[in-house]
Amino acid sequence: MISANDSKGSDFIRDIILDDIRTNKWGGRVVTRFPPEPNGHLHIGHAKSMCLNFGVAEETGGECHLRFDDTNPTKEEEEYVTSIKEDVRWLGWDWGAHLHYASDYFEALYEFAIDLIQKGKAYVDDLNQEQIREGRGTLTEPGKESPHRNRPVGENLDLFRRMRACEFEEGARVLRAKIDMGSPNLNMRDPVLYRVLKATHHRTGDAWCIYPMYDFAHGQSDSIEEVTHSLCTMEFEDHRPLYDWILNGLEIHHPQQIEFARLNLTYTVLSKRKLLHLVEDGYVSGWDDPRMPTLSGLRRRGYSPESIKTFCDRIGVAKRQTAVEVALLEHCVREDLNQRARRAMAVLHPLKVVIDNFPEGQVEELEAVNNPEDPAMGTHKVPFSRELYIESDDFREDPPGKFFRLAPGREVRLRYGYFITCAGFDKDESTGEVVTVHCTYDPETKGGQAPDGRKVRGTIHWVSAAHALEAEVRLYDNLFTVERPDEVEDYRTVLNPESLTVLTSCRVESSLVDAAPGQHYQFERVGYFCVDSSDSRPGALVFNRTATLRDSWAKIEGGGGKQA
RNA sequence: UGGGGAUUGGUCCAGUGGUAGGACGGCAGACUCUGACUCUGCAAGCCCUGGUUCGAACCCAGGAUCCCCAGCCA
Question: Which of A25, A149, A262, A274 does the annotation list as catalytic?
Fold first, then answer.
């Protein structure tokens, strides 16, 4: 159980933790935690953190707590708590009995503050926000001490108790740590520990009007929960000396903090602020819009939890600032869905085909494989009849070189069906558009093999016109047109106008009538799709494209292959 | 011009004194009732400059570049 090398591959954090287990540093225990603030929805970057924290706990037989860092009632809401828990569970992680909230520790935190005051390590400051900012100095100049810095302990105690009793207005007084205004680390220049906030907290209601700052809550919360390894992102690296100072001053359990780089993904943004704007300004339909990198968006798009976990394993954990290519995420979901998704035939841009020599009114049931990667998944029947729909791209009046599909005089195989040869086509006089293709079939080729052994280069998918279901299909592409939208002045100027294409008259095979919301399919030769969990209805199916299949023909043709 | 962190093919991650490796992406083939999957091959890298050493991606010195920090946000 103590071998993170088995399948996960290791990283510098797992190396440290494994070493700590060997040396019995924490009595062999491993306790980690995933500490989101309930002020937004979880995204793929949080998945990385969860896979690290819950993953390490799982691999070492330790435990991982889910703790909400809810120290700012003006920004946090219960709605977020609910969605975060749902997303954590969906990814497959289990916090067991360890669901915690920083707000559970408000009383303990208050006592810690009293303790620091009594030790002469904290003081109540009367300066206002602007004065404190001015007194902090700059990156190159030291700060100045507050005139209230040397208040007697008794006076500080009295004032802090009165802060708790709501005797002061917001901004009038704060509790500050008494550290070093000349420190080159700005976090050590007497940071604010407590502020007055007359806001209703989503869990503690109006019980408090003073709230601890994150820096005063996080380390102690970890300490209270006896966390052994406090894993966080790099921006907290220079807060570590402050946490050390507080924990040492309080003389309580001191977790080991280790920082790692947060995830960045190409063609998207992962800052809560920007994601919020996308939602609020209506650039997307909501937090769960399938174009969003949120876990709810990815879920609705059709990403499986397994594919996201695999992705997190592959990107590794290190300290350098990076941007992982979204192509890797796509690869992971294709790899997973290839193994699991049931195959079906769906025509996104229907083109009518009439098999002229097939008896009118006759219907045959052909057998289609559910998943060639997994024979145990069985087969299903697809109806074949005289009139079919094929993908309009699969027919060319004037085929380019290396085009193996249908064209005048060419023979192709209908997947699981017959060989057909194009005998002619009808055009709409006014538009010049091909509206019907006429073919003849070879009855000897039923099932897709020719008794005379002749081969065809192309196999195309199809649906029976009379049996097919009409469906809406939503094609998704990157939300942004540039690899690093974060580096653009206004990311809204690089939004991809083609990130969503809605196709309304697609035809899918009849076996999909019962397709359940969230169900994954591979539409053969097209891509991976899933039934939209919000808008799909029996009789009015809506499919979301999770990812395209790799398309080497599109490359030969020089196109992108991703477009509608 | 303060403090902290980082720098290995296009991208991400390994390698921590002894011939630089994997994955994704790219290119070229093979296979194929999905131009999918799978398989094979190819191209492509140690930020720079010195030093130590028989030998440096790794150790030392200097330099460069990038990221984070001046919320009563987390």
Answer: A262
